[in-house]
Fold:
Amino acid sequence: MAVAAQAAANVLLRVEGLRKEIGDSDILVDINFELYKGEILGLIGPNGAGKTTLMECLAGLRPRTAGMFYVGDEAPADWDPKGLMFYLPNNVAPYAELYTIEVLTFFGRVYDVDPRRWERIILDELSLQPVLRKRVNALSKGNMQRLLIALALMSPQPLLALDEPFDGLDLHQTRAMMSILRNLRAQSRTLLLCIHQLVDAERICDRVLLLSEGRIIGVGTLDELRAKTGLPSGSLEEIFLALT
Structure:
C-alpha cells in the first residue's frame, strides 16, 4: 500500500472547515485536523479557547455553523456520532440519586458488557469497590471521576472523547488513570482528551492540538511542535507561549 493510501486508511475522523458562531461571536474558526486510529490526541488551550465547544460539536450536542466531518470517505449531512464516539463531559453526575452499583449495573446492561470484564473494570482497574453502596451525589470528586471513566470504559465505541479526565485525581490516581488510557490505546481504541494541565498532556498524548481564541495554532507531536517553534527541548507550556 502506498504511504498516502496507508495514512488515509489510518484516519478515523477528519474535520474540515469547522466553524461555530454564537450570536456575533466566532467560537471556532476554520478548524481542520485528522484523528488517527489508536492514538491519543490532546486538545489543549486556555479557558475560553473553544475546547469544550469543539467536543460538543463532534458529539452532536451543538450544531455547527459550517464545516464537514468525515468518517472514512463519508460525510453525512445529518451528523450522528453515536456509533462512533462516546463523549464524557466534565462535571456531570449521572443518575445522582442512585447508588454507584446501580449506575454501573445499568450501563453494563445497556452496553451488554461481559460480567467478568465489568468486574475487572470496577475492582482491578478503577478500585471502585469501596463506593459501590454510596449514592452518586455523595461521591468525592476523585471517586466521581473514576465512576465516569468506568462508564466510558464499558462503552463499545471506537472513539472516546473525555473532557478533563484527570480532574479531581491526585498524583497516584492520575498515574493509574494514564496507564488505563494507554491500555485502551493498545487495544486500538482512539482517545480525544481535553486536558487543562499541560504536564499531564505531555505525559499521555501522542499528538496535541493547540487552540487559542477558537483557532488552531499548532498540531502535531511534541517533537514536531518543538521543531516548528525552534525550541528543541521546550516544554508544551513554552511551545504554547511561543505560538501565541
Observations:
- The first strand starts at residue 11 and ends at 22.
